[in-house]
Write a structure and sequence with these properties.
By secondary structure, the protein is α/β, with parallel strands linked by helices. The protein has helices at residues 55-62, 80-83, 104-110, 113-116, 124-136, 152-164, 182-197, 212-215, 232-235, 238-245, 262-266, and strands at 17-26, 29-39, 44-48, 70-75, 87-90, 170-174, 201-205, 218-223, 225-231, 251-254, 257-260.
Length: 268
């Protein structure tokens, strides 16, 4: 393990997410190759890289949804299976069957099944917690609306509320800003930053290079291999971005350092 910029806790029990020598392959084609990564506590970390870089696969590996060829992932020093109650997951909106006949409130209540078990019905306290989570994301009035009647931004807020109600320590989010309006994007980042202020750890797959320095304090640059990981101010450099995107990304300079153009990022 050779952590890049930033100082990591010495003991794995203090590290929210520890990825060591992780290799994942689909049909013998490596999607992640020998990836080492420590995500420190209380950071808002973006995972950035071109299409096919393995960003979603990294999250699925942390959740135990894909089996690695080699390596391991630990949550506070233990396998995910024993720590799953500490982790909340917001999947890509495009991966969800929105025609399933259920309400926004029911979707949020699903976030409590890990605590309740599948055979115990949610009670008044669980319903109140779910309504409070919907209120935090600004759509409490839509609690009884069918999810297929909601806009894309509203659907994303429902999934954020489902994650919030779990009261997790770690939040994994796969492109939460994809396909949402500017108002929803602003609400999501405000919520993320509030979670970070509470000491929560967030790992977020993100595609918009222009907002990395504005939204995040840590970043991991990934293209099958980990290119770099650490504080945005140290790691989000022109050199590392060129290594990540194969030298195809034009840049402009801002007060916060080099920025890749959005148009170039969308091409890959």
């Amino acid at each position: 393990m050779n952590p890049q910029a930033g100082q990591m806790p010495r003991h794995l029990s203090q590290v929210p997410i520890h990825v060591e020598d992780l290799t994942v392959a689909y049909q013998e084609t490596p999607v992640l190759w020998d990836v080492d990564l420590d995500v420190p506590p209380g950071v808002l970390m973006a995972v950035v890289g071109p299409n096919g870089a393995g960003k979603t696969t990294l999250i699925k590996s942390i959740l135990g949804l894909v089996k690695p060829v080699a390596g391991q992932v630990l949550i506070y020093g233990q396998p995910y299976e024993t720590q799953r109650r500490l982790v909340a997951y917001v999947p890509q909106r495009s991966s969800v069957d929105w025609d399933f006949p259920t309400t926004a409130l029911d979707v949020v209540l699903m976030g409590l099944y890990g605590r309740l078990g599948w055979f115990r019905r949610p009670g008044r306290s669980e319903r109140e917690a779910a309504l409070q989570a919907l209120a935090k994301v600004g759509i409490e009035e839509l609690a009884h609306r069918q999810i297929n009647q909601l806009s894309g931004g509203q659907q994303q807020r429902v999934f954020l509320a489902r994650a919030l109600v779990q009261n997790a320590q770690i939040y994994l989010m796969d492109e939460p800003f994809q396909g949402v309006d500017a108002t929803t994007e602003s609400a999501i980042i405000t919520l993320m930053q509030a979670l970070r202020a509470e000491g929560k750890t967030l790992l977020v797959v993100h595609h918009d290079l222009q907002t990395v320095t504005e939204y995040f304090d840590w970043v991991t640059l990934l293209n099958v291999r980990r290119i770099a990981s650490g504080p945005v101010s140290e790691v989000f450099t022109e050199e590392n971005l060129r290594l990540t995107y194969g030298g195809r990304v034009p840049f402009f300079t801002t007060a916060n350092g080099p920025q890749a153009t959005l148009e170039a990022e969308k091409k890959h």
